[in-house]
Specification:
The complex is a heterotrimer of chains A (about 110), B (about 625) and C (about 180). Chain A has helices at about 10-30, 35-60, 65-95. The termini of chain A are far apart. Helices cover about 70% and strands about 0% of the residues of chain A. Classes of the chains: A mainly alpha (about 110), B mainly alpha (about 625), C mainly alpha (about 180). The interface between A and C is large, with 78 and 88 residues.
Amino acid sequence: MLSIFHSLEISHYIYLSTVLFSIGLFGVLFRRNAIILLMCIELMLNAVNLLLAAFTEYMGDMQANGQMFVFFIMVVAAAEAAVGLAIIVMVYRNTRKTDVSFLDQLKDS
Amino acid sequence: MNPIALILLFPLLGFVINGVVGHKLPKSISSGLGTIMVLLSFITAIMQWSVVAADANGSIAWDAYTFFNLDGILFKAAFSLDHLSIWMTLIITGVGTLIHLYSMSYMDHDKNTSKFFSYLNFFVFNMLLLVLGSNFLMMFFGWEGVGLCSYLLIGFWYQNESFGGAARKAFVMNRIGDLGLLLGMFLIVKNFGSLEYSQVLPAIAEGSSSNVLVTSIAILLFIGAMGKSAQIPLFTWLPDAMAGPTPVSALIHAATMVTAGIYLIIRCQAMYSLAPMAQELILWIGLATALLGALIGLRQNDIKKVLAYSTVSQLGFMFVALGVGAYTTALFHVTTHAFFKALLFLGAGSVIHGVHERQDISQMGGLKKMMPITYITFLIGTLAISGFPFLSGFFSKDEILANVFHHNIIAYVVLVIAALLTATYMFRLLFLTFFGEFRGTDYKLSEVHESNWKMTLPLVTLAILSILGGLLNLPHYLIHQDGFLANWLRPTFLIFEHSTHTEISTEIALISVAIFVFLFGFIYSRNRYISKGLSPETPTSGMGKVLSNKFYIDEIYNKLIVRPIEFFGYLLFALFDTLLLYGVTFSINPILKFAGRFNRKIQNGNIEYYLIYMVAAIAILLGLNLFFA
Amino acid sequence: MGVFNNLPLPFLVLSFLTILGALYVVTSKNPVHSVLALILTFFTISAHYVLLNAQFLAIVNLMVYAGAIMVLFLFVLMLLNLNKESEPIKSNLWGIAAAISAGLLLVIITAAFQTAGIAVMKSNAEGIGLVKNLGRVLMTEYLVPFELTGILFISAMVGAVLLGKRDKSETVKTEEIV
């Protein structure tokens, strides 16, 4: 289908992916709610997925290595989201908050 | 075993044994051990006499050990017992034995007798290293060693702070001279590629080295001799060295260590004969020292100080002899001076002992009744040094005067004046101490006692030697040939020493002058102190004050040299130590603390901050990689 | 920067929506809004996948990410009862710092790509992302990782269950389910 879009180059997808990644990174740094934090991480992962898929298309890789990698990234992201959320629930049980700035027990007193 | 090794071994053994276990031994054993060791060295040396005398330039050599080989230059511990060194060895060990014997009694009441004897033995060892060494390296080893022993022995009663200061002063002044000696040795190694006498001196005697070089080396070595043998300007340590026990003054500062400089110059006769400028320098410095020492000695009231300045003056005489090229005469005077000066010092020690540790002659007087042996031997010593006819001092001094007369009339006149002053102050000392009325204020004449045999036997022995010492080198007009010492020593000189043959008429004139000088001193002092019964002067004005304050030389040195150096030291301390060293070391702590506090804030346990740090770091690293890799 | 003329409209619209959604995710005060915005973003990304000949991925993205993971997030949000967020917003300074850091990374990566000079030709390959192709590749070359993901999931499940367990000593009141 991409044959229609001859003017679309890999660099455009690179820029898009990078911007999405940066936005996700900004979210990770900026948000205090632990759940939103995890979501922004998912956003970053997706940006990377997009780039990988773009590369398999643009290199004509019949082995579809990039898409395979995306596949596994999704697997890991799912597992990580499950475990991460379980941890957040645990933390909430103990501290009644989801604010990550309260998790500073490791600080140098 | 090589006899030289034995000669060196005995005092070294004494040093070690007394040093390590001496304090556990009873005093008589440790002091006896020290004395016997030196005696054994003396006997061994005597036994070698025939061996060395067999040949005109006979010697025994001992190549002990090669320290290292630097590009072909060998640095060895090598010794040789030739005519010159055996003579010095006999003086050192002979007089040394007598002084050790004397010390057995003199230091008997001291707490640290064994330490004293171990130091004394170590001194003898180092002095023997100095004279037995067959190269400049061993000589320098011994040179420094005797300097060290001098420090240890002067400051033997270091609990008194001024004594420790005197020891330091001696060592530091010595060191200043040593710089010249070292520089001379460096020049020798650089230009002649060796430190061995057997290689350097013939090379110099060849005459092919530049005059500037030979003169420079000669002057530098003389600077070393200046420090060790107390010539102007490095002489003020010797009077202060009287802080040490009297046997130390006798051995080190009269008979042996101070003659090391003269020995060095005699050994390098080839060099000095080819450097007339250096010889002139030696002559005039020796003259000035002879005169200055005699002048100051005229108005000192401490027995030992008078003798100390007398030593300074007599050393000046010896250097004058060297300066006019009369090397044998200088060694002759060294020998006779060893006899009578050691005698005088030991006698002074006996007096000090007898009046219960007092040294001020204004507290003495009329002691000859109570200390006859001391008196008689002291009298003999005084006669010898003043040039009483046919005593040892007469011959040696007369020979010096004769040689100087042929060289320079002005120098001769100055030297005669110095000899006159010598007779004057020596008789002053004799009369004030032993004659006249007893002036002691806090003790009685009846408490004064003669010393025991261990002290009087050396006195008598040295007195006999002072009388007969002249036989060693009788002058030409008497025996119509060269004296014994002249013949003995001649083979060691590489360059022919001009022996001055004076006409008999000139000789008679010179002898008359000498006798006149002696009589003048005797009569003048007798008049002042016996007939008029004057007490020791404590002058408060005029020339007398200048003399009794030693021409204020110590004060001048202090203001001109010592204070600026101290000030410089404080300046450096304030600048470098406080600012740099203290500043740096003591600022590390606050800096680290501050850095720590600052870094602590980064670890606040908050993952948001950590995340930002991480991202920023990754970004910067990537950027660096991108732009600079 | 790349050439912006001649960009096809679908791409532009999709990209615009994606970025907008992403921005709303990170800036919304209400967490439920954030979740919904993220779901929108996933939809647009799936559309991108379709554009990129990765049809299987597009569907799987929707099913797994938007369908399962986001539902999970939403579920937890509801469980913790966080819809009216009293989340204290950070100071502006912090926002600026975060923006600078993220922006720094963006700039550097972009600069890297500038210098890298990627010249990739479009391919004419057909059916890269179809199930048939992907299935074949998955079962032949990537078989071992595929099986390992099973183990990964088991461990994740066990971990999550364990983490969610309560101690026996704790008693649960009906008001506090969490």
